[in-house]
Design brief:
Aspartate Aminotransferase, domain 1, Aspartate Aminotransferase, domain 2, 2 domains, 7-stranded mixed β-sheet, 13 helices, binds pyridoxal-5'-phosphate
């Protein structure tokens, strides 16, 4: 069967490749400790599950409008108004199955072939994939350790050309856990306004920021009208498998995105949307508890990782990822790059991590090596897993 040419431009998410490797090793009876998975290891809070049961029992099993149920969009509009300090109306909200579809839909809706699109590198791999898929030029913006894993605004400015129409930012950031301080967001906003650039602001980790409050670029004067906020339930409420997220954007864009939903999924599952409303409006104890546990684990994993010879790990500001610099460890172990190190850790030490290259090819002047570990796993696993890495490295130097 013939496959369309455009598929040659579509990328993927390598975390799923590692997941397949981990599953295969486990099937073979190997004991693997996985730091590779980017999803909370908690159950969805009970009140949310109960609301979903209730919705099913009440027969909420039919189509909803493509943009989502008005009631749910109202609660999202209120939530975003309160948390981002901007006025949002329900017709500026589109509900979708997960946060991810907002990446696809917003780029489909706003980016033309030949446009240049800025995106963070390292970064969530779907940005680059979708930018290429629509025939635009993907222009990586380096996210560097020396800048606290924020954006170097001077470098960013140099990447803007007359063809730049769209920019993706992600704060708190996957894979580094870094976040963009307000002063940098203000400078980025200035550039976007000056050069008429639309921003996709991926804020899926907005509730997992540990130092200070989450800042959205949409709250900077002049930016709400050129920003698409991506957020959702997956990470905050441990609802990855429910597939529930949303975008907040100017009404004209929301209508276009809803039209894409009509052409694709028709709508997001009805009972899931009712559960989502409960997530936003009901008790927040579950989400608060998870955040507290993540904060505790963050301290532990950073302190343990800094005991590994050749590892240097900063305390990240948000999400549930750490991104240690492993340049020295690669040298000590004779690995040519982080991919080789990740493979050795998986097959020889029984620990799954993701190499830097799972988040895009290295930037032109990037010399250092990194790996990503997700601490969305138990404290016991963290201690045991990092001890394995310590023993493995120590035995070989
Ligand atoms: N954006 C970022 C930065 C992510 O890390 C993820 C998931 O890992 C998503 C979006 C997608 O989230 P969802 O599972 O809600 O589609």
């Amino acid at each position: 069967m013939k496959l369309a040419k455009r598929l040659e431009r579509l990328g993927t998410e390598n975390a799923f490749v590692t997941l397949a490797k981990v599953n295969k090793l486990r099937e073979e009876g190997k004991d693997i400790i996985a730091f590779s998975i980017g999803e909370p290891d908690f159950d969805t809070p009970r009140n949310i599950i109960d609301k979903c049961h209730e919705a099913l029992d009440k027969g909420m099993t039919h189509y909803t409008p493509s943009a989502g149920m008005l009631d749910f969009r109202k609660s999202i509009a209120k939530y975003i108004s309160n948390t981002r300090g901007i006025e949002v109306s329900p017709d500026e909200v589109v509900v979708v199955p997960g946060g991810k579809p907002i990446i696809f839909y917003s780029i489909m809706a706003c980016v033309d072939e030949g446009d240049e699109v800025l995106y963070p590198n390292p970064g969530y791999p779907i940005y680059e994939s979708v930018i290429n898929f629509v025939g635009a030029k993907a222009v990586p913006v380096p996210i560097e350790e020396s800048k606290g894993f924020s954006i170097d605004v001077d470098k960013l400015e140099k990447l803007i050309t007359p063809k730049t129409t769209f920019m993706v930012i992600n704060s708190p950031h996957n894979p580094t856990g870094g976040s963009i301080p307000r002063k940098d967001l203000e400078k980025i906003a200035e550039l976007c306004i000056k050069h008429d650039i639309t921003v996709l602001s991926d804020e899926i980790y907005s509730r997992l920021k540990f130092n200070g409050k989450h800042e959205s670029i949409a709250s900077i004067p002049g930016m709400k009208e050129r920003t698409i906020i991506l957020d959702g339930m997956s990470k905050t409420y441990a609802m990855t498998g429910w597939r529930l997220g949303y975008g907040v954007m100017p009404k004209r864009v929301a209508e276009a995105v809803a039209q894409l939903v009509t052409n694709d999924a028709s709508c997001t599952a009805t009972f899931t949307q009712l559960a989502g409303k409960e997530a936003l409006e009901g008790p927040q104890d579950g989400a608060d508890h998870m955040k507290k546990v993540f904060a505790e684990r963050r301290e532990i994993i950073v302190s343990e990782l800094n005991k590994v010879p050749g590892f240097k790990c900063h305390v990240p500001d948000g999400a549930f990822y750490v991104f240690p610099n492993v340049t020295e460890a690669c040298k000590l172990l004779g690995c040519k790059d982080s991919r080789e190190l990740a493979d050795k850790l998986l097959y020889e030490a029984g620990v799954a991590v993701l190499p830097r290259t799972a988040f895009g090819v290295k930037n032109a002047d990037e010399k250092e090596e990194y790996i990503r570990l997700s601490y969305a796993t138990s404290t016991e696993n963290i201690v045991k897993g990092i001890a394995r890495i310590i023993d493995y490295v120590k035995a070989r130097i």
